[in-house]
Amino acid sequence: MPQSYEKYKNSVRHELMKAFDERIKKAMTLRSMSQLRLSTLISVSQPEISYYCRGKAYPRLGVIQQLAFHLNVSYLWLKFGTGEIFTSKEDILKSFHSSFQERLVWLLWNNNSSPVKLAKSLQCSSTIISHWCEGDRIPNISNSLLLAKHFNVDQAWLIEDNEKFLTYEQANKLDIGVIDYIKYLKKELRYDDLFK
User: Fold this and answer.
1) Whole-prediction pTM value?
2) What whole-number distance in Å separates Cα of residue 163 and Cα of residue 157?
3) Could you give the CA distance from residue 14 to residue 8 in angstroms, rounded to a whole number?
4) Residue-wise pLDDT tens digits, 15-34
5) Do 178 and 153 touch, CB atoms closer than 8 A?
6) pLDDT tens per residue across span 107-155
7) Closest CA to 134 of 10, 39, 18
8) Cα–Cα distance between 148 and 176 in angstroms, integer?
């Protein structure tokens, strides 16, 4: 990577970090959620949560998604500080699909996978998967097709930039792996039922 790009990436990350600590502390206070309790709900240690609360670290997309889900606050508010703090659980989950990287990270989370596991399955570098998850790069057509086949989702849905939400009928037609997600939205099942 060129040094100028790394500087740009770090400056973007710095901007995202601004006030994230205040937002996560506000959400935790409103939900009466301790750092220890929150760390048991998501795949992050209690010291890492402490770093987020002190503005010393900024979580990756998958962690922000889990934080928003368990704190029951708007994902876009938590990530960017935009919109209202509260929203419906359905809207929280829909917002995970607002860009390619959010959709990819959600698919990894929902399938209990990781960039390393995905790289092994696709026989490619875990670094490139991480770049996709960070939004630094977008897969070409052949790689996006491999991703879509791997997760059993529609390729057009995976790579498009505009917001699109698959309906229950579309999911049934495609016979894709997000049917449990759609059922969750329709019937408001518990979190554990969503990620069986």
Assistant:
1) 0.65
2) 9
3) 10
4) 666 789 999 999 999 999 99
5) yes
6) 888 888 888 999 999 998 888 898 888 777 788 888 888 999 999 888 8
7) 10
8) 10
